[in-house]
Structure formats: C-alpha cells, structure tokens
What does this fold into?
Amino acid sequence: MKMTRKEFLKLTGAGLVLVFGGQELAALDRMAQAPGPNGAKPQRRKQWAMIVDTRKCAKDRGCTSCMEACDWAHNIPDIPDNAHQIKWVWNEPVDKVFNDYDVRYMEESQRTEPIPVMCNHCDSPPCVRVCPTGATWKRPEDGIVMMDWHRCIGCRYCMAACPYGARSFNWVDPRPYIKKLNPDFPTRTKGVVEKCCFCDERLAVGKAPACVEACPEKAMMFGDVNDPKSEIREVLAKNYVLRRRPELGTGPNIYYLI
Amino acid sequence: MFLFEKALVGSRRYKIWVGALLAYITLAFVVYLYQLNQGLGITGMSRNVSWGLYIGQFTFLVGVAASAVMVVLPYYLHNRKEFGRMTILGESLAVAAVTMCLMFIMIDMGKPMRALNVLLYPQFHSIMFWDMVSLGGYLILNAVITVNALHAEQQDLPLPRWLMPIILLSIPWAISIHTVTGFLYAGLPGRLSWRTAIMAPRFLASAFAAGPALLILLSLLLRKLTRYDVGKRAINGLAVIVTYAMVINTFFILMEFFTAMYSRVPGLTEDFQDIYLGQLVHTSLLPWGRTSLVLMAAALIMLLIPKIRRNERTLAIACGLVFLSLWIDKGFCMVVGGFIPSPLGTITRYVPTLPEIAITVGVWAVGALMITVFYKIALAVNAGEEEPAHAPIAEVAHSVTAIGSAAQASSTSLHPGLMPSGPDGRGAAGKDEQSWHR
Amino acid sequence: MREKLWIYGGLLLFLVGVTFPVWRDAITHATTQPPALEMPANQKQCVAPTDYMLTSHMKLLMDWRTSAVRDNNWKYTSFNGKVYQKRFSGTCLQCHSKAKFCDRCHTYVGARTPYCWNCHVDPALVKGATP
It folds into this structure.
C-alpha cells in the first residue's frame, strides 16, 4: 500500500476527527495560529518569568543544586576548558551580574555572593532578531525563547547579540563530557548554539523547571507574569526587584529580589 | 569557461607561483577538514570571544570588495579616462574579495552543511540575511560586468548598452554591502563599542583607503612583472583617493575617541582602553592596536606630503602601511574588541591558533590565485587586442575584429610598454609572458 | 587490430567495473535476504501502517520534529486513533532498538547512519551503561 503524504494526513485527520470529535484539531488550530478574524476569542498571551530571591539563595553559599538539576535534565557537558564551557544556569558573583549597579561599598562577602544567571527570555530578544535561519524564536503562546538545534547553522550571531552572555556554542563534540546521560533529552552536536529553554519539555507535561524544583531554599519562583493574579505578580507588586541591564530595552523576564 | 584557457598558459614563473598557491590551498583545505571534523574548538575562539579572525577577515574584505567603486565611479560617472585600465582590475578584485568573504563566512560556521537554511527559511529581520543578499548580488553584478567588459575588450567593441545600468547599479550597491556589514555590528544592543552610528561610515572610509591602496600596490606589481601599465595618472588619482579616505577614517576614529573619553561612559571607554591605551588590563589586543595606530599615523603623514605621495616608491610604502594598519584595525581589533569585556565583565584573551591562521592564509591564497588568474586573463585579452599593430597585413585581414583593434592600437600609443615588438601576434603574447621572468 | 584491442579491452574493463558490486557480493557471499529485524514484543502496531513506515519513516520523523519543536504540538494521533507523544527516544525507541532494528536495516540497504544519533540517545544503551 503506497501512500502520499496528503493521503496519510487525511487518514490520520479522519481518525482524529472520529475519535475526538474535532476537539483536538480545533485546539491544535488555536495553538498554531494567532486569533484571526474567524471570531475566535483571543487568548491572553502567557509570559513565563522567574524571580530569584537572592536572600534565600545566599543562605547556602556554594550551593549548586539548581545547576546540577539542569545539567542532568539537559545533558549539559562538563568541559574542563573554560573557553568551551556550556552553561544554561550558572552562578556569577553579584557584582558581575549587576555590574551597572553600584555595589562598590557592599560588604565583600555580599558583593561576591554567587547568584544564578540564565537566559532572560526577553520580551524583545536581540538573539531572535539577528538569527538568520529562525533557529531561535520567541514562542508566541508563552514567551519562551526557544532553540531549534536542527535548524541552527552555528554562525554565533546570537551570541554576539545577547547582552547577558547566556548563550553557549558547542566548540567541540559535547558527548564525551557528559557525566550521566539522560536518555529523555537529546544531547547536542558540535557546531550549534544552545541555552536555557525554561524547561519547555517539563512545562509541556505540567512540571516546573528543573532548577525551580531542585532549589532546597525555594529561592526560585516561576509563573506567568502576564497574569495579574499570579503568585509571581504578587511578589513583584510588593518588593523592589532588579533586572539585568533593563536600559537596553530587551525586557528580561528574570527578576532578582535583593 | 570564458577565456579560462588564457590562464592555463604562462611563463615558468607564473606556473611556479600558481603551483605554489594550489599546493598551499590543498594543505589549508586539509586543515579545514580537520576543523570540520573536530569542531571550531581548534580555533582560539571561546564562549566569551565567539567571533575572531575569520569574521574579522570577512569584515575587512567586504571593504576591499566595496572599494572597487572608487575606480568605477570616477571612470563611468565622471568620465575620468585615466581610470580605464584600472577599472577591470578593480572589478575583478571585487569578485575575488567577495568570494573570500563568502569563504570566511562558511569556514566560521559551526554547521556549514546547513548553510542553505539561510535561504530555505529567510528571516527578514536578520541583518545577516540582508548581508547575504547584498554580498551575493554584488558578486553577481561584478562577475557580469567583468566578463562582459573583457569580452568587449577582446572583440574591441564598446561596452554593450545594457551593461551600463548594471555598472551604475554596482556603485550604490558597493556602498550598500559595507553599510549592511556595519549594521551587523552597530545594531546589537549589548556591545557598546560596536553600537555607534558611525560604524558604517567608518567602515566605508577605511575600506576606501585600504582597497585602493591594495589596488595601487597590485598595479605597481603588475607593471613590474608584466609591463602592463595602468598609467601614472591613474595611480596618482587613486593615491589622492586613498589620502582623502585615510583622513576621513582618522577623523572618524578621533570622533569616537572624543565621545568615549570625554563622556567617560565606561562601556565606551573600555574598548579604547583594551585596544589602544591598556589602562585596565593588558589584553592580547594592545600590541596590535598600538601598532595599527602608529602605522596609520605614519601612512597618513606620508600620504599628506605631495612629494612622497607622487613618488611611486614611497607611495608603495605608504600604501603598504595603510593596508597593514587597517587590516589590523578592522580584521582583528574591531571584532575581537567588541567581545572584551564579556557581558559579565570577564576579560578573555583571544589568540588565533596555528590551524586557524593556516586556514585564514588558505583563503587569502585562494584570493591571490583568483587575482592572478583574473589579471592573467585581462592582460592576455589586452595584449591580444594590440597584437595587430605590428602584424602582417594578411593576418590582420584574417580576422575581422582585429581591424578595429589595429586602428585603436595605433591611435592609442599611450602605453609604449605594451606595444608588442614581435613580428606577429603570437610573438607579442610570448614577449608579454616572458616578462614574468624579469 | 590494435584499435580493436583497445576498444574491446576498454569495453570489458568498463563492464567489469560496472558490475563490480555484483562480483564483490558474490565473492564475499553477501546475501540478498532481508535482515532479521527485531520486532517489539509489547506492541503490535506502529504509529502508522508498516508500508508507510517502510517508505516514509524519515518523513514522519521530520514532521514530528518540526511540529513538536517549533509548533509546540507534541501529540500525534495515529491512523487508528491512538494518541502518541511525538518523541524519538520516548516513543520510537521504547519499542525499537537502534542496533537491532534501525542499524540492521540501514546497513542492509546501504543507507548512511543518519545524523539523528549525533544528539538523540538510544535509551537501551544508557540503562545498560549506568548503574
């Protein structure tokens, strides 16, 4: 039995309609395209965001739970050569993360306090703007800045464009440097760029990002910042928070409680 | 291939030169295969300095390609006849330079086999897409112009009418390629040393100094090796262009310097400190930046003194200094400087590795080979055109097209160096090739 | 005469060259028997009819890849109404073994090992390797 793609799709489509009465199809349709003139109710766009409570984080200096959880979940290699390292979430001292803010007279221990940094999943991501192939894009439904490692040509323009140093390039084959392989997540191949994806694979099955879940101090809070009733918005309403280099207009979605 | 057979014959010297280039290109290709196999980790680039020599060379060569406009424009728009012999050299230099640009882009890619994704999934918001469009278009324009100009010269016909609009289009197009390349850098929010509105103008100024300087050097070399003389007036005219461009380029650098150092905004001053002043930390850029500045100043002074500029020997030295200083400034310091310090304030040393340099030189070797072959063809066509001047009547009558060129050759005895002295056309060609030995 | 020798000799050489794969297989006793592919024990039906999978599995994988990664559409409803997760390791490789299914057939038809494996992991191998 030979089948063209069209026939196959028709057949699967027919099966789909039969079983789910078209609900699934309609849902897919809604997801795939922005609300059009067909009278569909426009869905409120989500924007996943994170608050890092540095006071809670500081309780255990040198803690790397979030990084370890992420490294295992995403098969991130441990490459000894600094130049070739891959980082999704990692610790940086406060005075480097906020080098635009005045921390000159802050106590040494506080100034060098390591806090986690990662991709900011910007509102207006420069990396997405510059990517020549669409290998990185801002997901319309929830604002995650995604990566398609099948599409990336490794030109590294996004790395030059990112004002946060959140992107890593696979200078070498990462496989030999992965301590423990997680078969549920692909590794990467040499020659592509990668970064934090806000655990889109976990969000898809209703789980919080791995780092949020792993933090022993519950210093990371994750939620939809576009939902005025969300927990994350409550915290943002009541506290003074910092974002990295907000003057650039990228609109980072990682907030730091100082 | 069009006229390619003319590149296959030549003197011993020509063959040794081409053979050596081919041998080195093969070697560099093997090194590239090694890079393809191992990944870009064999280069000196890193997580913090993620572009290096390759993209620097690309940027510099876009300038060289664009600079062809500096001979095309006076020749076609202002009817400056003295640039006539220079134009074909400039246009074919542009073809070679754009080809080298594309090669540098390819070797810098982590996944070159996926390069077509740029065309399969075009992203109109990406400057890189527009850079590809402008560079590709410029390559096609110049290839068409060069081939047809050579054809016309060979047949001794005027340029076809339809070619004129294409030539005129190539002028703004040349400006566009370097403007878009400037936008590649100037449009990034986080890299303060690149994010300057005079990035593209500065690129153009340095390009119009470095490119014509190279063209002068090539013309002088060509006369020494082959007796093909572009004419003193063309060289002098081009030297004036180099001087003006160099002055404007220096002016732009000083503008940047003022804005950074007087405002004292750290993000702006850091770049100057890394590259030229070395107040913060000694980076690997410092010696290069300083060398570049010194050479630039020396070149500028030499060019500004008419006596030195008009003497071909000293002009050659000045042009060499212009080329070298801008090559260091643009092909290395400008790109690498943008990555220092990193967004998290880290100063990362970047030193190109041996394989990286070997591959880079390999691309330059391809460029040198292209220039050699192009100029060989252009010279052969040119020599062929003037053959019948001393040819026996019978041979002249043999070829219809030759009659016209005979008339032209006898009327334009401006370039005595090119007048063949052999008894027939073949002898003249032989004479021309022999001069490679001298 | 000499020309004839060259012509027929050349022709013979050409024929030998062209039929080389046949010779080689005859000498190395290569078999034309299809390889014994290890079929999953726990499943009777793949996500699409066997005929379709035989000819177009790469097409299906590419479609899955694009719609899952780029359109955030992870559910796949098969022709018989069963819903699957569009996951290579999580769905395909739960039934099929790389070595005993994919590789065997790819080797048999002389298809180059696809680059899927540069990134995607055969879960069977990992379970064996890690304690």
About this structure: The radius of gyration of chain B is 23 Å.
